[in-house]
TrEMBL record:
<feature type="domain" description="Spermatogenesis-associated protein 20-like TRX">
    <location>
        <begin position="8"/>
        <end position="168"/>
    </location>
</feature>
<feature type="compositionally biased region" description="Basic and acidic residues">
    <location>
        <begin position="1"/>
        <end position="12"/>
    </location>
</feature>
<dbReference type="Pfam" id="PF03190">
    <property type="entry name" value="Thioredox_DsbH"/>
</dbReference>
<feature type="region of interest" description="Disordered">
    <location>
        <begin position="150"/>
        <end position="195"/>
    </location>
</feature>
<dbReference type="InterPro" id="IPR024705">
    <property type="entry name" value="Ssp411"/>
</dbReference>
<dbReference type="InterPro" id="IPR012341">
    <property type="entry name" value="6hp_glycosidase-like_sf"/>
</dbReference>
<feature type="region of interest" description="Disordered">
    <location>
        <begin position="1"/>
        <end position="23"/>
    </location>
</feature>
<feature type="region of interest" description="Disordered">
    <location>
        <begin position="330"/>
        <end position="355"/>
    </location>
</feature>
<dbReference type="GO" id="GO:0005975">
    <property type="term" value="P:carbohydrate metabolic process"/>
</dbReference>
<feature type="compositionally biased region" description="Basic and acidic residues">
    <location>
        <begin position="335"/>
        <end position="344"/>
    </location>
</feature>
<feature type="compositionally biased region" description="Basic and acidic residues">
    <location>
        <begin position="150"/>
        <end position="174"/>
    </location>
</feature>
<protein>
    <recommendedName>
        <fullName>Spermatogenesis-associated protein 20-like TRX domain-containing protein</fullName>
    </recommendedName>
</protein>
<dbReference type="InterPro" id="IPR036249">
    <property type="entry name" value="Thioredoxin-like_sf"/>
</dbReference>
<dbReference type="InterPro" id="IPR004879">
    <property type="entry name" value="Ssp411-like_TRX"/>
</dbReference>
<dbReference type="InterPro" id="IPR008928">
    <property type="entry name" value="6-hairpin_glycosidase_sf"/>
</dbReference>
């Protein structure tokens, strides 16, 4: 039999992940109808491998199997091999990951799936070693067995039957909406109320690790900013100390551990241990966007400045290492890099091994040995830094290295050394700067320079939130990133939003998360800056969410457009049209879309956005009620729909600095700050710019009083009188929220 595919075709793809595999002896094909047509022509299965550029185990499987000539020969002869960047094709990833979770109870990357030529998987897994190891089959043997089974008519029939069963189950899960005939026209029982937020928080408290923080008491620990958010909201609403303890205990655990980069700021993907000590070292834009928002809210709720510091350092990391010169944000830093010369043994010492021949090692850029600290610092600073960060002989990581953690507190160090705490802090600050500068000379991890609309939307929201709490420079960065995305990813004439930009190459169209996350980012940028253009962009994107992703008959918002449309997302090779219900590494796009529509409804003179948001949370009410903790974004959307939330309209040429400082100190969860011009004439100019015929409810009849900046504070669709004193307006709100 001739090979189904003649060559590796990834050299024509811009994705950094696909480019990493462009030199493999495997004849990789990009995802698309052409690959599946080739499989049908040659009557062979399709092997789909899904991953991303900074995925550690993706690198391992590539080195062990995809770079092996003999394994590549099996893949090339017996399959059509397809490589997918999950960050570019989240729809493909979602459908196959759902199958994996339904069939195996878990998932992860690399995700490996063997499919019929129609794209229906009949065998799934994640990482496979090249040869059998412990309880795992060897990848080579597995491929050969699958090929033999496919050639046997009886076994093939069973494989096709299994594929049909699996895809039917996954389709039911991904496309699930209640039958309207069973529950009235709304398609669900009734809209869930605000009590769901408290139920989600109670579930989070039950799963809280009260020794180390986080959720779960065994194995890996993942950042779950959505859970932290509902805990803080529940505490503000009920005053239950257990909710606040779980929120702050988790934030403290992450900030003290190795998941947080103690030297350079920013968070790694997750911790492999319960104590938060050793991370998987890739740094993702989305983690470093979501977590600062949680830390900023914790600062406002508790007044603890250390939370603001972590947020500021994390956003500083994004600005320094993930920001394009023109404002957009790159996607990831790899987990691996070449170790510094001090850890290479004899490599290169006699000229026989050039530096580029040294293998990349996970965490090499971030970990330390005592000798490396001694080389960067003089005494007593070196000893102080080693005690502070737990850097000792033997280490806590591979090859005797140490992932820095907060091993000793400032008061402990002060007591041990008979120093004042102020002197210890000053010395540690200087030591940290010196260690950072020394680290900068090391070989750097690779950077995936895709600019994704969705992830940029979350980062814009984070910088906008910091702008409201920490000051204008952060809001300016949010505005620059929004402008970058609008200029490079958005077509003003057609209203089309692409998913990603990479060095001038644009790929699209965007998915629901791109539209929903970027719309929310634009809305947050407007709140922080008072720029009506940002608000107009948010409204335009929200319109597209409704027109292109909302299905009125089903009462839901799908992740992709209608598959019958002539777009890339109408790809017939996908066996389901997914919805994104749960919060995973990023928030649920369905939940963010619904909440954003509810927030933007005040800027409409009709109720279309509110109606869609209410319909969505009503459709999925039973699902949300059954497991609110797994549907945090949908819970927040339902809470917004039910309660109306907090709105602060400010009529002024600019929000006064003193007012900004006051608002920065107040924890107002989910509050929407809505600046507007102080006069009707000024507002008319804004309305004309936004293409509005009349003032929407959030601005209507809310002029400045006597030419003074004026606040109108609303909660639960009830508003304060106009106040020229922001403290008086917030006192009205506090009086409403206080127990009778």
């Amino acid at each position: 039999m001739s090979q189904p595919t003649e060559r590796n075709r990834l050299d024509g793809e811009a994705s950094p992940y696909l480019q990493q595999h462009a030199d493999n002896p495997v004849n990789w094909q990009p995802w698309g109808e052409e690959a599946f047509e080739r499989a049908r022509e040659h009557d062979v299965p399709v092997f789909v491998s899904i991953g991303y550029s900074s995925c550690h185990w993706c690198h391992v499987m590539a080195e062990e199997s995809f770079e092996d000539e003999s394994i590549a020969a099996v893949l090339n002869d017996e399959f059509v091999p397809v490589k997918v960047d999950r960050e570019e094709r989240p729809d493909v990833d979602s459908t196959f990951m759902t199958v994996s979770q339904l069939v195996t109870g878990g998932g992860g990357w690399p995700l490996s799936a063997w499919c019929t030529p129609e794209g229906e998987p009949f065998y799934v897994g994640t990482y496979f070693p090249p040869e059998p190891r412990r309880n795992q089959p060897g990848f080579r043997d597995l491929c050969e067995r699958i090929a033999d089974s496919w050639a046997d008519p009886e076994q093939r029939e069973e494989m096709e039957r299994r594929a049909d069963q699996w895809t039917t189950s996954a389709r039911d899960e991904l496309e699930s909406v209640p039958d309207p005939s069973l529950a009235g026209d709304a398609g669900g029982s009734e809209a869930p109320g605000p009590n769901l937020l408290d139920e989600a928080a109670a579930a989070a408290v039950r799963g809280y690790d009260d020794e180390y923080g986080g959720f779960g008491s065994g194995g890996a620990k993942f950042p779950m900013p959505g859970r932290i958010d509902v805990l803080m909201r529940a505490y503000a609403r009920t005053g239950r100390d257990a909710a606040l303890t779980a929120a702050t205990g988790t934030l403290d655990g992450m900030a003290r551990g190795g998941m947080y980069d103690q030297i350079g700021g920013g968070f790694h993907r997750y911790a492999v241990d319960r104590q938060w000590t050793v991370p998987h070292f890739e740094k993702m834009l989305y983690d470093n966007a979501e977590l600062p928002m949680a830390y900023l809210d914790a600062h406002r709720l508790t007044g603890d400045a250390s939370y603001a510091r972590v947020a500021s350092e994390t956003l500083g990391f994004i600005d320094r290492e993930l920001r394009h010169d023109d404002g957009g944000f790159f996607s990831t830093l790899d987990a691996r890099s070449r170790p510094p010369e001090s850890r290479r043994g004899n490599a290169g010492s006699d000229g026989s091994d050039a530096a580029e021949d040294v293998a990349d090692v996970e965490g090499a850029f971030y970990v330390w040995t005592p000798g490396e600290v001694d080389a960067a610092l003089d005494e007593p600073a070196a000893s102080l830094a080693k005690e502070r960060y737990g850097i000792a002989s033997g280490g806590n990581f591979e090859r005797g290295t140490t992932v820095p953690t907060i091993a000793a507190s400032v008061p402990e160090l002060a007591d041990q050394r008979d120093m004042s705490t102020a002197d210890v802090r000053e010395a540690l600050t200087a030591a940290r700067v010196a260690l950072f500068e020394a680290r900068e000379s090391r070989p750097r991890p690779a950077r995936d320079e895709k600019v994704l609309a969705s992830w940029n939307g979350r980062a814009i929201s984070a910088f906008a939130a910091a702008g409201q709490v920490l000051g204008k420079p952060y809001a300016d960065i949010a505005s620059d990133a929004l402008a970058f995305c609008r200029e490079r990813l958005y077509d003003e004439e057609t209203g089309g939003l692409a998913r990603r930009w990479l060095d001038g190459d644009v790929r699209g169209p965007g998915y629901l998360d791109d539209h929903a996350f970027l719309a929310r980012g634009a809305l947050d940028a407007y709140s922080a800056t008072g720029d009506p253009a940002a608000l107009g962009f948010a409204l335009d994107l929200a319109e597209t969410v409704v027109s292109d992703f909302y299905d009125a008959d089903d009462g839901t918002i799908y992740f992709t457009r209608d598959p019958d449309e002539e777009t890339e997302q109408g790809d017939d090779t996908l066996f389901a049209r997914p919805q994104e219900f749960t919060d995973r590494s990023t928030p649920s796009s369905l939940g963010v879309a619904a909440e954003t529509l509810a927030l933007l409804d005040g800027f409409r003179t009709d109720r279309e956005f509110a109606d869609v948001a209410e319909r969505v949370v009503t459709t999925h009410a039973d699902r949300i009620r059954a497991s609110p903790l797994e549907h945090v974004s949908l819970v927040r959307a339902a809470d917004r729909v039910a309660s109306g939330g907090i709105e602060v309209t400010v009529a002024a040429d600019a929000v006064p600095d003193a007012w900004r400082e006051t608002l920065a100190e107040r924890y107002l969860p989910g509050a929407l700050v809505a600046p507007r011009p102080p006069t009707e004439d000024g507002l008319a100019a804004w309305l004309d710019r936004l293409g509005m015929d009349e003032a929407p409810p959030i601005w209507a009849d809310r002029d400045a009083v006597d030419g003074e900046p004026t606040a109108y504070v609303c909660e639960g669709r009830t508003c304060s009188p106009p106040e020229t004193d922001i403290d008086a307006a917030l006192e009205w709100l506090a009086a409403r929220d206080s127990p009778e």
